[in-house]
Amino acid sequence: MKGFVILFFLLVVTKGFAQKEAANWYFGKSAGLDFNSGQPLPLIDGLLNSVEGSAAISDVDGNLLFYTDGITIWNRNHDIMPNGEGIKGSSSSTQAAVIMPNPVQTNLYYVFTTDDVLLGDTGEFNGFNFSVVDMDLDNGLGDVVEKNNELLVQSSEKVSAIKNERENYYWVITHFTDRFYAFRVDENGVNNNPVVSAIGPSINNYRNGRGALKFSPNGNKLAMSYSITTPDYASSLFLFDFDIETGIVSNPIEALNQEKVYYGLEFSSNSKKLYASGVNILRGNMLGAINISQFDLEAPDIFSSEKIILSFENEAGFFLGGSMQIGIDKRIYHAIPSLQLSVIKNPNADSQFIESSKFETELSNREASFGLPTFVQSYFETIFEIENFCLSDNTTFTPEDISGIAAISWDFGDPNSGASNYSNDLVGEHIFSNIGYFTITVEVTYDNGATRQFIEYVNIQEIPDVLGRVSLVQCDIDGVDDGLTSFNLLESIPLFNNGNDELKALFFETEENANLNENIINAVGYRNSSINQTIFARVFKDSECFVVVEIDLIAQPMSDLGLYDTFYICDGRLTQNTSIADISNVFDQLSNDFANSDILLFESANDALLKLNVLPLSEFSFDALFTPELYFRIEEDTNCAFIGSVQLVITETPDYEISKTAYLCEGVAEVIAPEGYESYLWSTGLMNQKVQFDTPGIYDVLFSTGTCSYAQTVEILPEIGIVVEAISIQDFSRNNQVQIQLGINEIVENTTFSLDGGQSFQNDNTFNAVLPGVYDLVVYNGCSVYEEEIIVGGTPSFFTPNNDGVNDVWTMANSNFFPDYKISIFDRYGTLMKSFQEGQIGWDGRYQNKNMPADDYWYYLELQDGRSFKGFFALKR
């Protein structure tokens, strides 16, 4: 059993140089990580609050020395160092700072700080500066003895550092406009005269100065990104050669046609892979998802080798893709605002073997932002390969190149293993005594007498507990029962993992390929090439320790049920574009036919075959333009037994009266059930939608389409006549009113009323503003009719006595219907103008043979029935 090949990282170079200088990180909003144990553990004691960059430094044993956000320097007790405020950097800079020791005077540390593009709006810039910390001062807590030594008046937000191992000095590099500035740091301190490489790119707008600059750990490559935001979003990603002897940058390669705003950068520890974070640029200068891409530096066309490793939704619309930083555990971490970091677990691997996780590394409720600390990239150089990580395996440590190496001394950090904990072999080999993380210390002696110390962490794991051989039974729905079909090999994992859901698997056609991790086959949609073919799964938890499981692929014959049936959904919802149904109804109907089996529903035949996108038993929307169809998969003991489809007829629950009444009318009641159904069945045995009854009683009707049935109850009542108890007429007024009062048992809501003999009806039993006259009252309740003639009395509201033959005399309307009436007319002063009665002519507008003036006049009317009325009218000339 072997683990994935990973590379052993150089941690300590020459005397006192160890990778544990990068053991403590502080970043974001008081967030931090401690890598001393080999795996990141949250630190919650940090004080910086950085939007982007920061830097930290530890001693060779991994003890924190100090950290900074580019503005303030805190010591290991999290107190501000003497003179540690007012550093001319910025926490809003992509790479705010980088820290390194003097290669000889190891008590002295140099803090290089970068500019901030936001300062450009003020017209003032911080430039590129360095400060000096002496750790011998303040009782070993450090003191800033020099501050803000200016190297460049203005710079971008980029900085990276590398060590020349052979000559024992550092290069610190930045970029501004169209050139690189590489500053040498040796035993004499910082050389203020940089090596300048004027090879571009030319970035003239200071607002576009964001982005990262990173050396490869071996110092041979230099990658740079610019986050172009003005005037529009654009891509800018470059790769260069770097001469670690001269500090010269050369051979630029640009990533062309890359539709991303690039930001963060990092190399794998073996310097063979480059990773870049970027935000996708969409049409209309809009921003899309955040992607992390891998580029193969050994590919003929490096930037054409791009593979997306991680992708993040970007609902907040960030234009910064987030920083990346490799840790001493050889993993690459990525930060965007969150309570966790994402991680690439094996960045040396080719893209198809990469393992990565979003938001996996916890920060104990501290929040990351867009930045991570910057370190000297030499801390992460790889010179070894490590193989075999299972307990009881012989773990091997192989130098990539043994030329120039005189001797190697190994301490495997496993004292329980006794004398075998130590070795002087060029290739280290060790069988670890237990599972867990181990710290391996290696001292390499070269032919020239120089020595280096390296530190590595390995995670020894238990051998996965799995079944060695299983059978994966799949349905065959291609129309030919030949034992060949398509499989979803991932379905085999629960068959062999003994309930351990943390186990993962890769699949291969041969056992040799499984052991070598070569020629991985596509797990979803794999089609077997022969009957009962055996394939091989490489099973692991964290990729480093694996076992191989044999999987027999078996095609289930006669398993294609095709179009199985038509199911009716009786409580669906229909719109113009969709038909919506609760598909648990389909599950229930299938359960009747496939009892004691597992039933799964899918949208397509391919999903059903490969067991992809299982539909929840809830509402599902179908396109109204197509016949609704669902696919089902029947499993028995986790094996695929049958696959078929069902067509659906979706109907809505009708909106109807569950119970209603009808009345016999002339001995017959006609009842109509809701329309639009295939069949009707009445409790009398009739099967029509429309039926007639001649006997009072309660009747039921069942109306159905397919298996969808609904019931309605109809009560037939005897015919009801119309009983008019009273007709109230309020006449001889400005607003004559007629009101019809029915008997107390009448069905008022079904009754209508007419005063014109039935030509027009109203539901109200009261008529208002009725003019004087004779009316034919009709009352109708849908069956019975009541008729009566009524008289509405009244007087004219005016008359015009001008002898034109129209309205010349004022008298009572319909006077022939009111015998023995008497009327007296008065002027406004109470003078009696005239009195007249039945059979006499009314008033002609004269008094004492004189025409009376146009005015209002009053009348007093007395009727035979004892009623009397007072009113007025107008005389008009």
UniProtKB/TrEMBL annotation:
PROSITE patterns the record matches: PKD
Domain of life: Bacteria
Chain segments annotated as transmembrane: none
Domain (PKD) ranges: 394-451
Listed InterPro entries: Ig-like_fold, PKD_dom, PKD_dom_sf, T9SS_type_B
Gene3D superfamilies in UniProt: Immunoglobulins
NCBIfam families, sorted: Bac_Flav_CTERM
The name this protein goes by in its record: T9SS type B sorting domain-containing protein
